Amino acid sequence: MNKTLVATIILAVVVGVFHYVLFPIFTPKGFSWVLNQYVYFLILVLSIVAYNLILKLKPAMAWRGGVVWLTGLYFYKFILYPPVPWTLLITYMMLWSIGTFLYISQDEDTFREFRAPLVKVVTGEYKFARIIVFTLMPLLVGFATYQSLIPKFAEPVELRTVHPAPPATTKVHGKTYGLEDLQNPYRVDEQDNYKDSFPFLDADKQEYMKFVTEGGTVFFQNCHYCHGDQLNGLGMFSHVFNPTPANFVDPGTIAMLRESFLFWRVSKGGPGLPNESTPWSSAMPPWEEHLTTEQIWKVILFEYWYTGWHPRTFDDESSVGE
Amino acid sequence: MLGKEHRKFKAIPWVLAAVLAVCFAGFAQNAFAKEAFAESVFAEEAFAKEVGAQEAEVAEGEGKPEVEWSQDVFYKDFEGNPLKGIVSGYPAPELGDSDYNRYDFAPSRMLLWMANQQHLYFGSFVLAVPIFCMVIEFIGVRTKESDPVLSAKYDKLAHDLMKVSLTAYSWTAILGGVLLFTFITLFPGFFKYMAGIFRPVMHVYALMFLAESGVLYVYYYGWDKMSADPFLKWIHVSLSVLLNLIGTVLMYLANSWATFMQAPGGIDEQGRFLGNIWHVIHSTLWNPVGVHRILGNIVFGGGIVGAYAAYHYLSAKNDEEKAHYDWMCYVAMFIAIFGLIPLPFAGYWLMKEVYAFRQQMGITLMGGIMAWLFIIQAVMIGLLFFGANSYLHNSMARVKGAHRYMKYCKYMVLLLIVTFTMWMTPHTIVMTPAELKAMGGAQHPVVGHFGVMSAKNTAVNLMITCTILCFTLYQKANKKIMVPWQTIGNCWIAAIFVWAALNIIFLGVYGYFLPANQRVGLSVPQVTSTLTTLFACTAINISMFKDSESYGDIQWGTLSKVGAYAIFLLAISFTWLMGLMGYIRSAVRLFWHVTEVVRDNSPDAYTLTIGEAGKMLTFNTLFVWVQFLVVFWVGSLTGKKKVEEARAPQGIPVPAQQQQ
């Protein structure tokens, strides 16, 4: 019996058993270091490699290429959780396809072996396969065309810039601030040692903690409804907004920004955003209308203290010509 | 020692030595500029104050002060206060409608972009080729005694490249003229201001161009004559060094205009020149842009030459031609990959300086309106590494003995894909509201961690390390190691790679727990780990080749078609990527001609959509490749004639030489 056919049959059985029997076992509701979908995937891949080696099947290169490609698709479609958006799935599969191509074209022999069945299909040596392929192809193209033209009612996606460039200056409560050199006035005591210390080390400094506490009070009175009581962007109102409120715990938000940036963002809110950041879709109010300048600075101080991030700073010497 | 006929050349080495000494002095000055600069600034300022005070006194006597002092927008003195200088120029103009001209068929900005990009593409090529020729000719001279046939082959390759470069050189000058006229005619107000500031630099630039042309012509037309005698051959090699030095100075001078526009210095807030031309030239981005461009030129030039060779390889009529162009592909790719490995690090340095200059500019680039272009850049860079590795894998297949290592290729591909996935996962994902709800927030709990710099640095370093590993295996492919310490040597190589990978990953993870300013510093040990694999493992590898036996010759002329097409992919990606990064760097000024000094008041002062920018970049890429085809065709006209002349009396082609 053809070894490639044997490999295909075994693969179908193994994947079927894994997907319908083992997958539910490996995906319990709670988190587990052992019983999770990534361990499951690893075992699945090792199993496929193992039975091919043990049975010395050595299926055709086209089969191997196909299985490698499908393995990637299976991972991104079923294993990676929560599911990634469609745009990211396309991107990842494009990369995986390139990788598969590199695998099959690593030398002349493997590439020739891979091409052989395709050439035979096109030239008619595999007559039955050619009939199927050339019958299905126009149908698939037709279906894809239909899918792309059918009216849809989903909200369109927007290329939104989450962290826009701030202006050089901003005017809050009648005073103009230059954002390039602006510092948080309530970080003064810690300023000298600030670059070399972690935030939690500052906790024993009473004056600092007083400002943090005041900032926390402001946060829980005004901000946590959207940004969440763990500052992870999952407040009680967050699910009705698009875009969702910022997740301060994420290393890609406040950890990458200077405090002056936050000062501008908080003061001006959604309406103060430039066009590339779609000010019309942000729900954040301009907090300068509700909070004092001091309160804004304190709430920023609290956000950094709570999340454990440091605001971005730069080496002084590299920013000026001396 | 010299024959009589050579005595007249006695003076040449002395003249060359003097010129070289002057150039090296210039470079040394550049290298130590930071240290020397502070002292010179202090002295200059003290001197200027003294002179200024004297002049003021004289002026006071006349009742009207003539000397005006102003503060530099960038430079600071020892105390951190803005440096003061005597106003020596006019304020930047407030540009109006009369300062901009336009044609009906296309916006002025697009025309200028096209003229600029075409000139830069060709400029990059003609600056890169002399670097190759210098290296290749040097290798040829060094191998003359051990392998005269190979030496002649290297010499011929360098000569052929120079021939193509010569045609491209004239083309570059013509495109430079087109660019200049485009500036003068379409942006007269802006150009007047720039010419006012850079007047002396522009004249020096023109003179350097003259010197470059002179040396280039002597270098090219004196090739055959100077090859006859070993001493003159060394002089000829020295001329290539001089040619490259002048070329580098030319490039740095031209860079100063662009870096001044992006991050000005040496002027006050009104745009008035403060009397020190070095301050204007040596603004904050000058050095990183210079280094980035030198490396970029090498990669771009290697890509162009590689594509040229790959085309000839695929269309070769006989085995001799195939072997020659296969070998040429290899040399070009070797040079391109050599430049590609450090290129991302130079890019990081440049971005760090941009961020340090203006937070606003850095955010616009990496997180703001240009961020999506950076995602595209990430894709293109990944393609470069895929192309380079694909070429190496396919090259290995034609080396006897490589079967020992070919089985590892698939694992290296897997590593590349995983790291590339990290490299290009965006921080902000484009998604529908339904997908956002399904994901439970704007950040994905798993892949969301790949959207920040710690992950990116780790990914790119692992990608480069993987490429270095692939190259290390390629070097060993047909060697049967005979040294008694081969096991220890191999263990060291393996240990260095494993240590480097672990170190890179550890530092990447550690970066998530550090403040941003400290996290940036982690990129240095990560890069050091990567470069250690390159230098240490290559050194160990080469040491192990002593007395090695060969499994067989490299089968030149048997490169697979996929390998040849990988070179095309590299060349086109380089071209497109170069255009993209140039556009990003330039467009980040947004509505300024000179950042915060000269505002762009033309109707074209807007940021293009990604689609429009992409179309323009693609057009520029296609356009320059059409021109390259023409230049190559022109260059081949003399070549064909010579080949026919040379072959006629012999009747049969000379068989290709095999290289170990």
Q: Structural class of chain B, please?
A: mainly alpha
In terms of DSSP E residues, the strand content of chain B is under 5%
Number of helices of chain B: 22
Order of helices and strands of chain A: HHHHHHEEHHHH
Poorly predicted runs of chain B: 1-9, 22-36, 648-660
The gross shape of chain B turns out to be globular
Q: How is the biggest beta sheet of chain B arranged?
A: 2 strands, antiparallel
Write down the domain tally of chain B: 3
How many structural domains are formed by the residues of chain A?
2
Could you walk me through the main structural features you see in this protein, from its secondary elements to its overall organization?
Chain A is mainly α and 322 residues long. Chain A folds into 2 domains: 147 residues, no CATH class; 146 residues, Cytochrome c-like domain (Cytochrome Bc1 Complex, Chain D, domain 2, Orthogonal Bundle), CATH 1.10.760.10. Chain A has 10 helices and 2 strands. Chain A has a two-stranded antiparallel sheet. In chain A, helix 5 crosses helix 6 and helix 7 packs across helix 10. Chain A is elongated and about 85 Å long. In chain B, 72% of the residues lie in helices and 3% in strands. Chain B contains 22 helices and 6 strands. Chain B has 660 residues and is mainly alpha-helical. The two termini of chain B are 35 Å apart. The N terminus and C terminus of chain B are likely disordered. In chain B, the strands form 3 sheets. Chain B has a two-stranded antiparallel sheet. Chain B is globular. Chain B folds into 3 domains: 33 residues; 374 residues, no CATH class; 152 residues. The chains are: A mainly alpha (322), B mainly alpha (660).
Which helices and strands occur, and which strands form pairs?
The complex is a heterodimer of chains A (322) and B (660).
Chain A: H1 3-26, H2 37-54, H3 61-79, H4 86-104, H5 108-123, H6 127-149, E1 169-172, E2 175-178, H7 206-222, H8 224-227, H9 259-268, H10 293-307
Antiparallel strand pairs in A: 1-2
Helix pairs in contact in A: 1-2, 3-4, 3-5, 5-6, 7-10, 9-10
Chain B: H1 4-7, H2 11-31, H3 33-62, E1 69-76, E2 82-86, H4 108-142, H5 148-186, H6 188-221, H7 223-227, H8 230-262, H9 277-281, H10 286-314, H11 319-340, H12 343-357, H13 359-366, H14 371-396, H15 403-406, H16 409-424, H17 433-439, H18 453-476, E3 479-480, H19 486-510, H20 516-544, E4 549-550, H21 561-587, E5 592-594, E6 598-599, H22 610-647
Antiparallel strand pairs in B: 1-2, 3-4, 5-6
Helix pairs in contact in B: 2-8, 4-5, 4-8, 4-10, 4-22, 5-6, 5-22, 6-8, 8-10, 10-11, 10-12, 10-21, 12-13, 14-16, 14-18, 14-21, 16-18, 18-19, 18-20, 19-20, 21-22
